[in-house]
Amino acid sequence: MQTYTQDELRWAVDEVERQGAGPEAVLHFLAAWDYAKGEFFPADKDTLDLQIRFVNELVRGQLPNGRAYRETPVVFANGNKGAPWQEVPRLMDRLCESNLLWTIPDAFVLEFLSIHPFEDGNGRTASIIMNRRTLGSHGAIGVVAHQKMACYPFRNVPEPTNWVDTYVPPRPAGWETQSAS
């Protein structure tokens, strides 16, 4: 049986309430946190991409199978739009390739939230990623979440890949056909 600190429980309840999910989502959030603490911290982009999808599926109470990203448009409460759903796989590939999670974690989370790759649970997933990334270096769980996750107003940035473009060199023309052969 897993035990949790008061900070972890408070963090889970706060995140679920802030995201407007029901009380059952607290258990899903904690299951995703358990998974992240034990399994999540990949260094290569393909594994990182898959791990993020696993965390999101657990946050939403689903068995992790690494399904694809959302296939619907998303509009935030403030009227801003997430990345076009057709672009989500490419944007997530570039984000995971960018090394931002390891170099500028705040920027990684901001980019993740502006892409908004999933239909639900993006904020909770981002909170878990950020807290897992900083586990052991920032003290209590949830401290990072509440300071950094106030970034939802950041969605006013028109281009969701500003940071990624800075940290990922452009791919050569025809790279997709080269990698397929």
UniProtKB/TrEMBL annotation:
Gene3D superfamilies, A to Z: Fido-like domain (1.10.3290.10)
Alphabetized InterPro entries for the sequence: Fido (IPR003812), Fido-like_dom_sf (IPR036597)
Domain (Fido): residue spans on this chain: 50-181
Entry protein name: Fido domain-containing protein
Organism: marine metagenome
Classification lineage: unclassified sequences, metagenomes, ecological metagenomes
